[in-house]
Design a protein that fits this description.
This protein has about 250 residues and is of the alpha+beta class. It has 2 domains: about 10-130, no CATH class; about 180-245, no CATH class. The protein is built from 7 helices and 10 strands. It has helices at about 45-50, 115-120, 125-170, 180-190, 195-200, 205-215, 230-235; strands at about 15-20, 30, 35, 40-45, 55-60, 65, 80, 90-95, 220, 245. A hairpin with a 7-residue loop joins strand 1 and strand 2. The termini are far apart.
Length: about 250
């Protein structure tokens, strides 16, 4: 179908759709709006609701006019119905007896035609059957929700137990380093001199404790003060000193 040709200002010359409430033959017109994305005129459902406060749905002849939807069958926003030139839409108002039914427009693909006819003619046997089924379902809904809640609780407890088991089996174990073994340390220390021990002592507390006895085993004091250990260091490590020599 070829796209319609619009004036420079299509909103200024937009058409209108005629509506009536049967059995009355008098009509009211509602201005259409141009959907610039599709190039089609549409009637906003909100405009219909402003004019017909109790509108339930509209139809053309015996066919219900559905709200427009996208390719994924989601209703377009804001809700709208297609504009159909030269057609008078019949407005079906809500019946107070069935006001518990959804206020949105009824889609004929989801509602039995006999139900619609019952709502329009007052022969509401089919509609009552649907309402009774709905009420029966709603009565059992709390029980279903309770069962679902209990099931979720059981699943949550099972997941918690599995999580605890997984954490127990994957808990990090203390890491053992080769230098934690005295035999290996002795083999390494055999190849180090006092200067190496001093360097190792600066790495961390563990190395400082391992090398302290080798560093302070023998202490030499000379005439150059800056080369001698401090008094506080001697006091702290004096118990490790085995030989003490002084040079001038």
């Amino acid at each position: 179908m070829a796209n319609p040709t619009f004036a420079a200002n299509p909103e200024a010359t937009r058409p209108s759709q005629a509506f009536r409430v049967p059995p009355s033959s008098s009509t009211l017109s509602i201005d259409a709006h141009l959907d610039y994305r599709t190039g089609q005129y549409v009637i906003l459902w909100l405009d219909v609701q402003r004019i017909f406060e109790d509108v339930h749905y509209v139809k053309q002849g015996s066919s219900v006019v559905s709200l427009m939807s996208d390719q994924n069958f989601r209703e377009l926003q804001p809700p709208r119905i297609p504009y159909r030139p030269g057609v008078v839409f019949d407005v079906v108002l809500r019946d107070p007896v069935h006001e518990s039914l959804p206020e949105k427009q009824i889609d004929p693909s989801f509602v039995d035609t006999k139900v619609l006819q019952g709502l329009e003619t007052g022969n509401d046997t089919s509609a009552d059957r649907v309402l009774n089924d709905l009420q029966s379902t709603l009565r059992h809904l709390p029980e279903c929700l309770t069962s679902i809640r209990d099931l979720l609780q059981v699943l949550a407890e099972d997941m918690h137990a599995l999580s605890d088991q997984f954490c127990d089996t994957t808990a990090a174990k203390p890491r053992v380093e080769p230098m934690d073994f005295p035999e290996i340390r002795d083999l390494v220390f055999q190849n180090l001199d006092r200067k190496d021990f001093v360097t190792c002592a600066r790495l961390n507390k563990a190395w400082r404790s391992w090398t302290a006895s080798m560093i302070w085993e023998s202490v030499d004091i000379c005439g150059t003060r800056r080369l001698n250990p401090s008094v506080s260091a001697l006091q702290h490590n004096g118990h490790l000193v085995k030989s003490f020599e002084m040079y001038t």
